[in-house]
Amino acid sequence: MRQGTFQWMKSVNKSIILNKIRTDAPISRAQIAKETKLTPPTVSSNVKELIEQGIVIESKQGESKGGRKPTMLLINQKVFYVIGVDAGPEKIDCILVDLAGSVIQRSSSMLTTPITNDQYLEILKKCIHDCMQSTPTIMDNMIGIGVAMHGVVEVETGTSLFAPILGLTNIPIKEELEKEFMLNVKVENDARAMALGESWFGDQGEVDSMLAVNIGHGVGAGLVIDGKLYHGAQDIAGEVGHMTIDLHGEICECGNRGCLQTFITGPAIVRRAKEYLLPPNAEVQQMTGAQVYELAMSGHEEYITLFKETGEIIGIGLTNLIHIINPQKIVLGGGVTKSGSLILPEIVKTIEKRALTPQAKQTQIGITTLGDDATLLGAVSLLLVDVFEPA
Questions:
Q1: pLDDT greater than 60 at residue 391
Q2: What are the structural domains, with CATH classification, of the chain?
Q3: DSSP 3-state of 247
């Protein structure tokens, strides 16, 4: 589906109806009219077009309330497709999914540094091509490409303004990908994309406000309020990894000292293990975060303590965010959360100790159920919002 050709879905009424079917299916035309306040003729005419266009299908008849049994409506999950991209600092991952988020194809490309903007874009394009080429027959039904990019993103232009870990600035991702693939492209900060993905695919229930925090090679967050991402005045909302925790701490990639991410990321955990726990030898220099976690899980108390300290520091950071944002729910994702059995109890304990009010102490804290695909599905959701939600 080439650029602009899915705009038939973007009338306000169609989006309202589509989103109602998506969230409450199976649902009848009469129920849609009643719950959306649209007139029955408006619902019927729009549903007729949506069925003709293939995105809505009729299901078995529902229960009768005294008259003829109503025909129920469902989203046809297999009719359109989206590419989701997790453009990280170490590798680029791509998935091709249907409207339900079911993965049809994957591809991945490792990055080597130093790297230029042009080199990064070429690897990005190749990874997307690899994901598409195995299923060329569905190209005409492709809605677009969603890119979750680490660092600071200018959403309107789809430009990566600053990717601190790679040391790159002003990468024209949207412009280059739309030129290459002739598809709609949405670019978003990776943590904010993950937050949106959690609201779409994470089975989070009815929440008015949700904060998703991604803790991996870096730390970022996304805030979803009433189903909408909050970006801030200059598109830097969510850069919580650069919250100062220690004025005299380690120098961060951003150039400041003592940022939160200098304590709690995977590389930070390894650094702290090397500095404070491990004997200095060649084997130690190759240690990874996963190996430090394995040592903790095998019963080494010093490594268990290290992860508990990490959980406490995360808890301090989250308490600050609770005091500023006061979200109904916080969802944690990223590689570090694989150590959730060690860090989550400390996070909860720290929030209960430090939060200002009894209600704030009870803020829901959980780890994503989407696993390693959380950011990828977030990238996918950038396009789904365009289809299903009113402008």
A1: no
A2: 7-75 (1.10.10.10), 81-197+375-388 (3.30.420.40), 204-368 (3.30.420.40)
A3: coil
